[in-house]
Specification:
2 strands
Length: 348
């Protein structure tokens, strides 16, 4: 409990410092930071529709963040979330174009298709590691570009929508669209279910324990009887499936088709989320929503205060730098404070 409280305090301190630095930048640029932050959070949290939009936009951030967090905490350096997201989106799109089932079957079919697409792409990198000892840090990065060009080719030629003005596919069958309950899109509900499953696997199963031990000390894990190679492939496939699911849910929640630039920076932002969360599963969920609040509110902030929305990109980067860089310092500082308090209690 004390460890969790310490992590919360460290993260809050890092975010506060980042916002203070952002305020200083705005003052030098001639903007009012209080009005800017008020517009930022008002546009993202000011009403039910805005908050539902935040939840919808947080889905790819959370899922790609979970993908990176599970990978980094388990040992593999999977940086292929952008490519895996695109392949998941492509698999879901193709499935939605050529298969038409009742919604109760179609939605699970497309979700699984997206996960298969992402897992296939990460599995290739995993096999290259197993067969040729190629570093997944390099192969997953290289495969991001291949996935980008491959999906661009796919939506420009074989799956191109006739008479469209730019590269895109036709819309998938409506039976594959994620249902909406008022302003709430159920893609976030799927994300919560996946989050619970990942948390349970990671913290309550033997495999999850072995993954965590391997991530901390692979030699100790190997000497303890852990099958490093088998677990490596399991982690690569699982994390690829999570990123692929993010791509599938983007398609299914709207725009219901694959368009050029679909992936945007979701996956890279998800990797940033995992870094700020220090690969914590629960923290990844929280930071995924927090970053979505910033990104969703950026447009309203620009409209109301004239502050460029690019400031939010800078703010996100500052949050990552401050939280990650100061994590060790704040940990040491809090440890000293707690030690002094305990010594005073004992002396009293």
């Amino acid at each position: 409990m004390a460890h969790n409280l310490r992590n919360i305090l460290i993260n809050l301190a890092g975010i506060l410092i980042a916002f203070l630095l952002g305020a200083v930048v705005m003052i030098f640029q001639g903007y009012n930071p209080l009005e800017t932050y008020e517009a930022l959070f008002g546009y993202s949290l000011g009403n039910t529709y805005s908050f539902m939009t935040v939840l919808k936009n947080s889905v790819p951030l959370i899922l790609t963040g979970l993908s990176a967090s599970v990978a980094f905490a388990s040992g593999p350096v999977n940086l292929g979330q952008p490519g895996q997201l695109l392949m998941g989106a492509l698999f879901a799109t193709v499935g939605g174009l050529y298969v038409d089932l009742p919604s109760v079957l179609m939605i699970p079919f497309l979700l699984v298709s997206a996960m298969v697409g992402g897992a296939l792409w990460s599995g290739i990198a995993g096999l290259l590691k197993r067969l040729f000892n190629m570093d997944e840090y390099i192969t997953t990065l290289m495969m991001n570009m291949i996935a980008d060009f491959f999906t661009y080719w796919a939506i420009t030629y074989p799956f191109f929508e006739k008479n469209a003005n730019h590269p895109q596919t036709p819309r998938i069958t409506k039976n594959g669209w994620m249902p909406e309950i008022g302003d709430f899109n159920t893609n976030f509900l799927v994300t919560l279910i996946v989050f619970v499953i990942i948390w349970f696997i990671f913290y309550r199963t033997t495999n999850g324990y072995e993954w965590r031990i391997s991530g901390k000390n692979s030699l100790f894990a190997r000497l303890g009887g852990v099958e490093i190679e088998k677990n490596y492939m399991h982690v690569m496939l699982l994390t690829g499936a999570l990123a692929g699911l993010a791509g599938g849910l983007i398609i299914m929640a709207g725009p219901h088709r694959f368009i050029k630039g679909l992936g945007a920076n979701y996956a890279w932002d998800g990797i940033m989320v995992s870094m700020v969360a220090n690969n914590g599963i629960v923290a990844t969920l929280i930071y995924g929503i927090f970053f979505s609040i910033l990104q969703t509110g950026a447009l309203g902030m620009e409209l109301i205060t004239q502050v460029p929305s690019e400031l939010i990109t800078v703010l996100q980067a500052v949050i990552v730098l401050v939280v990650v860089a100061s994590r060790g310092y704040f940990t040491l500082l809090l440890s000293k404070m707690m030690t002094k308090r305990k010594l005073k209690e004992r002396s009293a």
